[in-house]
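Q: Got a minute? One more chain.
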Amino acid sequence: MQFSVTARNLEITPALRAYTEEKLSRLTRYLENIVTIHVVLSVNKHRQTAEVTLRVRELTIRAEEESDDLYSSIDQVGEKLERQILRYKERIMAHAARGGNRVGRTASAAPVVEEEPRVVKTKRFAVKPAGVDEAILQMNLLGHNFYVFRNATTEEVNVIYRRRDGHYGLIEPEG
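A: Always. Here it is, folded:
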């Protein structure tokens, strides 16, 4: 497993690196095949953020937490990743045991119907050619958090979105 820690606006001390590795290496209890763990620790004014990206073969799991204390942010992001991994593993087990009883249910207990999330609305629209700046303007005019458009320079379908920090992100297809 490859473990990397990147810092923005702070110096990574050996104690901070060891604490981060110890907290996040616990995730191997839930997923044995973790290929990489990439951690980005950053400090912006009074907010301290921990972002973690896990890669497990074809699966990518990402979580981000921020608080007043960097160690607290690391703890919170570790807990968030544990919940995501457990939810993922439950979904896999549910699909593997389709129609069967789940472990832990008793015969006398009333069956609980849990609905899987599903698509409840489909919306179709024309994907118009636009530049990135034009797409940001259109997204803001519509009052949305994202906007799908055909990039005028690359002719590929792109998505522009508003990030929590107020900046914008651009999603482009690969290959």
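A: Residues 105 and 111 are 8 Å apart (CA to CA).
Q: Perfect, thanks.
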